[in-house]
Design the sequence.
């Protein structure tokens, strides 16, 4: 198959072409160019979904060597002495990545609609499209070094998006947008250095001539090494796991590496927050399952106890902080920390010791949570963005009874909050229920503590809704108009998806299961 | 005996010399500068075409010698010739507005530049000491004049005088090294030198081994010092910041890429083809490694505190020379061509990105008259194209993935690691982190800081062409890195092949 007849190549290329097109056309047309290209990518991802479905269904997703949709070509090949430096353009989608590819395409398209009236709109939309391409690359690369490159590609547009269009309020002596952009960049860069070191370590240790996931997964690290001076013996797998996981932990974000997230969210413009929470955080969770679990199952297993504890800190600490937030956006940012902790708990359960079926359920739940958290948080951020664009403040206490003036938005915001706190019948419930049931058998105490997050989530979200939308009406907001039709498009689109996933999760779970069960059986089966 | 085929081997240089003369003559008869620049640009098609024809016609499985082994057209030489011609094309495009505004001497500027390019091309393709020296002078003397071309500006005059004096001194040192080498071996031909060093030298009609011969070591160090000036390696770098700052910016761009690439071309040729590594290898490797470490470290750390963009670029180019030396010394120490292949790849990427970054600085000078880092403030709002392309080039120089500069660093460092110079690679990596500071600072002020003025800057056509060309080439090189590697590997091994062949 030719590289240009593969649809994944076009999913990567179309946003880039679109970005150039946006730059090159006058502002009025540029918006439509951006919309058309993001819609094309979304359409392509949906077509890919149904094509795979009709070509024999998702049961072929297990083996990464024979994916129904993948492409492999040697890109860089350089030999120096005994060192072989090979990079393959090896891309493909399976049950783990396909939902995220669709999610990314959907959210980017909605972000383009949301960012319709930004200042300097051409650059804004062009960067959003470039960002989409980088994130798509992360989700589809199956070569370690290719993955690393795309991981870095995403940094530059995100940095600029926060740094240029962000919030001007002074923070630590500099405008907040600059402070947060740098913080985001440095944290991620710091993590990715460790990831690169880990990848090179695995690659050299394996003795393979290429760093494709399929080559390395059959040559797992063995043995251990004694650390000089302290005399502790660590298995090589654990060392490699920790190195690579450092990058993902920053991105997820895992306590105590989460502090960049609230800053980045509060200072980023609405659509960027949406993409950041909806898709970018998933890169970390995706990398954890895709690379860490496949390449270092033993290391992940050894770390699973610590991971479970860190997960519960993420869940409870994140939710606790939400209770005292006065800024709506910051509140939702911290709620992300809490919800991403549930993914960590799922992974910790999957790598723990116990019944395979429960571990499998926990991992499936974690993967579903990636998708459902993506759409729910995106909806929440869009809602906050609508209020902020009109009222130019996000302080909870200033508002009151705004539902009177914004009935449509109040309904949707409440809906999103209910989805986020895990109301049965909506997307959030499915994932959290699966993770908690699965992990209860594996990490009982941890899970019992974690489940209280349901109560905390309900209290902070409903309390915020009450203070902003209900209660006595603050006359100051008499002039507020309701959300415009353009602003309502993304809100309704996301709400629809949330209901669909909540009522009929099987559609999503059927896609995910073949890949995950293969992963569990090939990588984690040795843990009884 | 002069053969017609010899002339063909020399034809790119010959046609370029003719072009320089034609440009000078055209300048005499017309006052319209566009005609002069167009002549230079269109005329460059001839040497480019001839060089490309050489790629297809000549057989590179062996070196093609001409003029009693003085000229050697191997794939190494052709690789560099392409780089130099590329530089010439970009320079003509990028300098057009600047020359009009500040230099006011088109004919001279283009003629000198073309003569200098002839010298550079010869430096890459001669295998004889005296010819190397002459080509070096042919390269340098036009550069001295170019540095002083802003006649009304004191700094420019100062730069020219400094450049002449220091340049003369360095070529004297180089010549001294060559003389020692000749005295030891009795020949100026690099192949002959390599053979004699290998088989033992003639001292008063007795053939003695040269292992441990101090003279050979001194000659090597002197040659390194002489070329070290050209490539601005520490401690021979003192000239570059002042001269970079004072000279007209296009000339600075030309020094930073052309003169440096030519210096490396000749340095590598003399050291590898001349077989200098066959004796006293350890001492020479230690000397070059120390120079590499000093060059990287000083370049990076001093660049981080500069306020003038041209001075910063001067130190950045010093640092880049240090990275290149890492690759070279790895190859030199292990007698394998991989390191030099990485060097060739690195130099090509460096040339493209540095030309792009300098096009940005030239454009800034044309449009706002400033070349301080603070003049970059808010450039993204005043001219998005300029800011985006400059940022891409700077990010590539910093080696930020996934741009081409990342490849060149990965390849040169992993090669040096594979060839056993691990400590040098660690130093280089630490240095790369420092380099993020100063490249990042310009990107930051272009994008995040409030602009000094709010007007839109209109880019002249020549500059926007050259900077877009550089940025586009960057993207193409990133994706098509494999093609360059495929070209660089035989080019580097063509040097070694002849040494190992005997």
Sequence:
């Amino acid at each position: 198959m030719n590289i240009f007849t593969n649809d994944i190549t076009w999913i990567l290329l179309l946003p880039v072409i679109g970005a150039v097109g946006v730059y090159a056309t006058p502002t009025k047309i540029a918006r439509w160019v951006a919309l058309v290209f993001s819609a094309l990518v979304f359409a392509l991802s949906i077509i890919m979904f149904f094509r795979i479905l009709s070509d024999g269904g998702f049961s072929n997703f297990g083996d990464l060597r024979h994916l129904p949709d993948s492409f492999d070509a040697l890109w860089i090949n350089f030999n120096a002495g005994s060192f072989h430096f090979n990079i393959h353009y090896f891309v493909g989608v399976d049950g783990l990545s396909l939902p995220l590819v669709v999610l990314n395409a959907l959210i980017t398209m909605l972000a383009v609609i949301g960012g319709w009236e930004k200042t300097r709109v051409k650059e804004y939309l062009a960067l959003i499209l470039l960002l989409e391409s980088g994130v798509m690359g992360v989700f589809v690369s199956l070569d370690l070094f290719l993955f690393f490159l795309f991981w870095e590609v995403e940094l530059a547009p995100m940095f600029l998006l926060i740094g240029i269009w962000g919030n001007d309020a002074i923070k630590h002596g500099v405008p907040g947008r600059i402070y947060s952009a740098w913080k985001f960049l440095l944290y991620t860069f710091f993590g990715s250095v460790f990831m690169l070191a880990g990848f090179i370590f695995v690659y050299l240790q394996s003795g393979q001539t290429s760093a494709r996931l399929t080559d390395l997964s059959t040559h797992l690290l063995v043995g251990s090494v004694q650390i000089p001076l302290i005399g502790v013996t660590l298995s090589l797998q654990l060392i490699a796991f920790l190195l690579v996981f450092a990058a993902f932990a920053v991105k997820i974000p895992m306590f105590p590496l989460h502090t960049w997230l609230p800053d980045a969210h509060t200072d980023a413009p609405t659509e960027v927050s949406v993409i950041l929470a909806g898709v970018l955080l998933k890169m970390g969770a995706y990398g954890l399952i895709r690379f860490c679990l496949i390449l270092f199952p033993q290391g992940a297993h050894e770390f699973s106890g610590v991971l479970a504890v860190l997960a519960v800190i993420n869940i409870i600490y994140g939710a606790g902080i939400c209770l005292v937030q006065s800024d709506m956006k910051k509140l939702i940012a911290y709620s992300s920390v809490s919800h991403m902790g549930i993914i960590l708990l799922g992974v910790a359960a999957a790598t723990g010791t116990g019944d395979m079926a429960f571990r499998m359920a926990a991992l499936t739940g974690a993967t579903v949570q990636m998708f459902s958290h993506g759409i729910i948080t995106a909806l929440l951020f869009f809602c906050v963005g609508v209020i902020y664009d009109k009222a130019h403040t996000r302080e909870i206490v200033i508002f009151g009874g705004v539902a009177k003036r914004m009935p449509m938005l109040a309904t949707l915001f409440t809906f999103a909050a209910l989805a986020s706190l895990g109301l049965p019948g909506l997307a959030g419930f499915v994932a959290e229920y699966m993770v908690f049931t699965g992990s209860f058998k594996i990490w009982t105490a941890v899970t019992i503590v974690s489940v209280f997050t349901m109560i905390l989530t309900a209290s902070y979200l409903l309390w915020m809704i009450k203070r902003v939308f209900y209660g006595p009406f603050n006359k100051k907001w008499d002039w507020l108009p309701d959300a415009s039709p353009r602003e309502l498009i993304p809100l309704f689109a996301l709400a629809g998806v949330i209901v669909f996933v909540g009522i009929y999760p099987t559609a999503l779970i059927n896609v995910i299961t073949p890949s995950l069960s293969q992963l569990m059986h090939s990588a984690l089966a040795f843990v009884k | 005996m002069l053969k017609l085929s010899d002339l063909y081997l020399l034809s790119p240089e010959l046609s370029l010399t003719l072009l320089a003369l034609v440009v000078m003559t055209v300048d005499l008869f017309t006052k319209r500068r566009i005609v002069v620049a167009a002549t230079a640009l269109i005329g460059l098609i001839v040497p480019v075409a001839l060089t490309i024809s050489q790629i297809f016609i000549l057989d590179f499985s062996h070196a093609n010698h001409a003029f009693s082994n003085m000229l050697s057209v191997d794939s190494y030489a052709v690789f560099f010739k392409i780089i130099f011609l590329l530089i010439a094309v970009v320079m003509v495009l990028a300098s057009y507005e600047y020359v009009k505004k500040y230099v006011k001497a088109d004919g001279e500027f283009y003629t000198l530049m073309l003569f200098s390019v002839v010298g550079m091309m010869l430096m890459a393709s001669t295998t004889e000491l005296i010819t190397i020296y002459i080509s070096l002078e042919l390269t340098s003397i036009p550069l001295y004049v170019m540095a002083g071309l802003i006649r009304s500006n004191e700094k420019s005059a100062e730069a020219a005088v400094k450049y002449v004096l220091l340049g003369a001194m360095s070529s004297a040192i180089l010549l001294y090294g060559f003389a020692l080498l000749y005295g030891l071996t009795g020949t100026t031909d690099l192949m002959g030198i390599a053979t004699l060093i290998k088989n033992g030298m003639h001292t008063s009609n007795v053939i003695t081994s040269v292992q441990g011969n101090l003279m050979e070591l001194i000659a090597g160090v002197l040659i390194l010092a002489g070329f070290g000036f050209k490539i601005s390696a520490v401690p021979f770098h003192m000239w570059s910041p002042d001269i970079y700052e004072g000279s007209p910016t296009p000339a600075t761009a030309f020094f930073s890429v052309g003169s440096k690439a030519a210096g490396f071309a000749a340095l590598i040729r003399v050291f590898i083809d001349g077989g200098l590594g066959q004796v006293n290898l350890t001492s020479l490797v230690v000397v070059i490694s120390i120079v590499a470490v000093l060059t990287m470290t000083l370049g990076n750390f001093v660049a981080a505190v500069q306020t003038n963009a041209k001075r910063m670029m001067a130190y950045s180019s010093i640092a880049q020379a240090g990275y290149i030396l890492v690759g070279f010394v790895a190859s030199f120490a292990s007698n394998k061509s991989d390191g030099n292949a990485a060097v060739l790849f690195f130099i090509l990427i460096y040339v493209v990105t540095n030309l792009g970054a300098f096009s940005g600085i030239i454009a800034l000078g044309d449009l706002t008259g400033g070349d301080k880092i603070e003049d970059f403030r808010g450039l993204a709002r005043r001219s998005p194209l300029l800011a985006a392309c400059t940022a891409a080039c700077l990010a590539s120089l910093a080696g930020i993935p996934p741009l081409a500069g990342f490849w060149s660093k990965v390849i040169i460092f992993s090669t040096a690691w594979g060839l056993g110079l691990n400590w040098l690679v660690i130093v280089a990596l630490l240095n790369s982190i420092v380099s993020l500071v100063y490249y990042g600072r310009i990107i930051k002020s272009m994008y995040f800081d409030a602009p000094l003025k709010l007007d839109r800057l209109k880019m002249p056509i020549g500059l926007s062409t050259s900077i877009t060309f550089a940025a586009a080439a960057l993207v193409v090189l990133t994706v098509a890195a494999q093609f360059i590697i495929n070209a660089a590997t035989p080019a580097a091994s063509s040097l070694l092949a002849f040494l190992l062949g005997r």
In short: Chain A has a mean pLDDT of 87.
